Amino acid sequence: MAYFPEVRWVDRAPLLVQTMLVESFENTGKVAAVGRQAIGLNSDFTLVTDLREFQAVIEGAEDGPFTVVVHLNMKIVQEPRGVIVASQSFVQKIPAASDNMNHIVAAFDRALGKAMGDAVEWSVRQIAEIGG
Asked: Which of 38, 75, 85, 104 could, after both became Cys, cross-link 96 (CB 3.0–4.6 A)?
C-alpha cells in the first residue's frame, strides 16, 4: 500500500461524500427535505450509504497510469419500520490522464460525480416508485 506524499483531503472521504450527497439531493429539487441523520429529521425514508472504495490504483504494470475507483453502496430504508426496500451499488473507474496529482484529482472528481449522480437518480426514482 502506498500513499501520495504530502497530499491530504480536506476531510475524511466518507464525510466528504456524505456532504456532497446531501447537496446533490437538495439540488435535484425532487426531495422535500434532506439532511444528515444526526440532525434528527423525522423521515419517511433513510438512505444508508457505504463508501466501499475511494482510491487510486495502478492496474497492470507497476509503472502504469493510475485509475481512480469509487464504489458506493446505497440502501433505502422505509421508516418507521426500518425495512430495506431497495439496494444498489454504483462503481466508477476513471483513468487519470497522467500521474500528475492534478490529473488524479480530476479523475476522482469525475468518478465521484458520476457515481453520485447515478446513485441520486436511482434513489429518487426508487422512492417515487415506492410512494415517497
From this structure: 104
106-118, pLDDT tens digit by residue?
A: 999 999 999 999 9
Residue 20: inside a domain: yes
Instruction: Assess contact for 43 and 78: CB atoms under 8 A.
Output: no
Q: Tell me the sheet residues that pair with 76.
A: 47, 86
Kindly report the backbone phi and psi dihedral angles of residue 102, in degrees, each rounded to the nearest multiple of 5, phi listed first.
Answer: -65, -35
Q: What is the biggest distance separating any 2 CA atoms in the chain, rounded to whole angstroms?
A: 51
Decide: helix, strand or coil at residue 103. helix
Q: How many domains are contained in the chain? A: 1
Provide the domain limits for residue 53.
13-130
Q: Cα(77)–Cα(83) distance, rounded to whole angstroms?
A: 5
Contacts of residue 23, Cβ cutoff 8 Å, sequence gap at least 6? none
Phi, psi (degrees; rounded to nearest 5) at 61: -60, 145
* Residue 7 in domain: no
Q: Is 117 helix (H, G, I), strand (E, B) or coil?
A: helix
